[in-house]
Amino acid sequence: MADLEAPLVRPKRKKIWVDYFVQFRWIIVIFVVLPISFTLYFLTYLGDVRSEWKSYKQRQKEHEENVKKVVKRLAERNPSKDGLVCTARKPWIAVGMRNVDYKRARHFEVDLSAFRNILEIDQERMIAKCEPLVNMGQITRATVPLNLALAVVAELDDLTVGGLINGYGIEGSSHLYGLFSDTVVAYEIVLSGGRVVRATRENEYSDLFYAIPWSQGTLGLLVSAEIKLIPIKEYMKLTYKPVRGNIRDLGQAYINSFAPPFGIDNDESTPDFVETMIYNANEGVCMTGKYASKEEAKMKGNKINSVGWWFKPWFYQHAQTALTKGEFVEYIPTREYYHRHTRCLYWEGKLILPFGDQWWFRYLLGWMMPPKVSLLKATQGEAIRNYYHEMHVIQDMLVPLYKVPDALEWVDREMEVYPLWLCPHRLFNLPWKTMVYPEPGFDEEMRQGDTVYAQMYTDVGVYYAPGPVLRGEVFDGADAVRRMENWLIENHGFQPQYAVSELNEKNFWRMFEAGLYEQCRNKYGAVGTFMSVYYKCKKGRKTEKEVQEAEQAQVEVPYAEED
Fold first, then answer.
1. The 3-state secondary structure of 35-67, one letter per residue
2. Average model confidence (pLDDT) for the chain?
3. Model-level pTM?
4. What confidence category does residue 187 fall into, taking pLDDT thresholds of 50, 70 and 90?
5. Of 61, 443, 485, 551, whose CB has the highest number of CB atoms within 10 Å?
6. Rg of the chain, C-alpha, whole Å
């Protein structure tokens, strides 16, 4: 790592017209995006309330009718001319930053827009049965009043069950429960021929059950999922601890903030939630949370902070105050804690609205925040989209816990993006080798945070404009992502595919394991009906020749077998 000590020298970049458009984009955001976003949020809320008025029996009946429509729609497809199957959702609606280029080519759409209901909250089995378009804001409104929650609640309100399963989902509780998909008990899937199956860990579709996560909906159409619930309390007791030192010291302080020695499982001292924010190469704040009762939170001397109010400081800036006032503890209402990053979209809100964190804006217009990501994407043209891909980073690096200091060092040198978000998660040693999997022999190394059944990983969230861009220097975003992907491959890391990817097919299958995925693609008739996961994630518009090739393509086994 000695080579990382020498800073990169970059020449100045000449400004172009897009720079000025991006600089003043806040005008469109304030007068167009925010009002429409607020209206859509309100209409969505009314739809959720209307759904809640219906009985579970009525919702299930409607669900079954909608599934029949999906089956009928698949039967209408002509394989020789209609193209590969995907959902009818508009490309700009997806929360991810990756261009949905596969929808620019010939394809066959199936409308799943009706699948946005919570079908059941089963308090005996501790299961929530949800349709794929149920989002995190909707599910927490239904469960938190019952002192229940999904085991993993992704932070942003708009993230959906389907996206978190088929793609990637994490939260501060993932060091206990794993990724969002690890908390799923059963999937209801419509296969290529119209057959509807329920896949669980133990039944005849157990291979499909383990293959669904990270598959991007390329094995079948997810129409419902049964997800684990856990008991919770009314408040989160959150401890903010400032840490200082060099970048490697910060990484080790994060590890020490929650990770026990090898083999020690959860006990009373294990925090319920963990996250760390690195604000620069020398300072960070480690946060650990424990559920607390209403009675405890309201005891004399305890501070309650309702961070969900529109006029409150943005959460990442509030946490940063620990660097000046030292370690402190406060109690946050649980649902508000779950969605603490929604209002400012982590810290992306600072780029979208440079003055959005100011007290006068928060009091006057903060109630309209956040802008919907889908509308931000809809109001940017091709030139703006390409600009963001080159001059802006939104990536997650999933790395083994012990390699976090190395990852932080790499990001500091190659991208200089701050703040950074650190969130741990378990990567379980499963009966099947899935697309993402622990390092071989990790249990023999006996590293901090690991157990015999799971390796501890960390999501290093890299979201913001890189330092060179902020200084007006030359920065090649595509090349930086390419180098990041190579680093991840060399260090047994993974890149969630909601983000822009520069991977070619060979390197894609060096990063991910193809064996089980390929087996299920063939076994359940997905080949020639659904796109392959690489085809969906591949950057760039698909040609008609690529569409025709993809209709018959299978995963190439030699790529899948490389470690």
1. HHHHHHHHHHHHHHHHHHHCCHHHHHHHHHHHH
2. 90
3. 0.91
4. very high
5. 485
6. 23
